[in-house]
Amino acid sequence: MRKKRILLPIFSLFIFLSATAQDKWDLRRCVEYAWANNISVRQADVQARLAEIDHTESRWARYPSTNFSTSAGFQFGRSIDPNTNQFTSGSSMLLFHSFSVNAGVDIFNWHRLKNNVIAYQYAHRASQAAVDKVKNDVALNVATSYLTVLLNRKQVDIARVTMEQTRNQMVLTRRKVSAGSLPELDALTFESQYATDSSAYIGTLAIADQALLDLKALLNLDAAAPFDIVTPPVDNIPIEPLLELQ
Q1: pTM of the model
Q2: How far is it, in rounded angstroms, from Cα 238 to Cα 83?
Q3: What is the mean pLDDT of residues 40-58?
Q4: Buried b (16+ CB within 10 A) or exposed e, 199-223
Q5: 111: alpha, beta or left? (left if phi > 0; alpha if psi -120 to 50)
Q6: How far is CA 233 from CA 26, 150, 154, 237, in A?
Q7: Count of CB atoms situated within 10 Å of the CB of 125
Q8: CA distance 169 to 87
């Protein structure tokens, strides 16, 4: 019974890790995550918010301004008598209180405020367009990296099939050499080709892993976090018949 209590949490953790590792991202999820977490998109969004604040401040600057201030305090100890304008020897306490009101309005300043509002308005629109541009660039880069990962994985499959075919030919040739029907040179040739194909297969694996890391960098994901992408089925890709194309 005690062993079951110990193995149950371990088994649950294994199921959770397996489900996490099998969670694959499609292209839409990658693009949406990049829009929300990419550093370039965040910086452009901050610049757009600052431009919006400047535009709002420029519009409020056209209205009259009014400032009101007040101050109060107590004064203890030796002080000047307001009646005689001389220092008093006894201790006293004075209460002072002051008010100040300032108002200002621009009558005419050669349309400076109006031009500032127009300038900040265009700056705000430009910053919003910059955000859209950065998002489009990030989406294009993510899509390109996504397709690069898929292409490299197909190259890995091709390299693996080529390596297996060479290995089968090498084994068959070695048997024929052992039987005396083929010379030793043919077996050595296929062994050399098998070594070359194995090296190419390992190289394509490294390239595919590097492409996946590049995609994770675009998404601003941790390099050690489990991550994989979905390979879309080719049959579901809409392709128009060649005869119907103009």
Answers
A1: 0.65
A2: 99
A3: 89
A4: ebbeebbebbeebbeebbebbebee
A5: left
A6: 12, 12, 13, 7
A7: 13
A8: 117
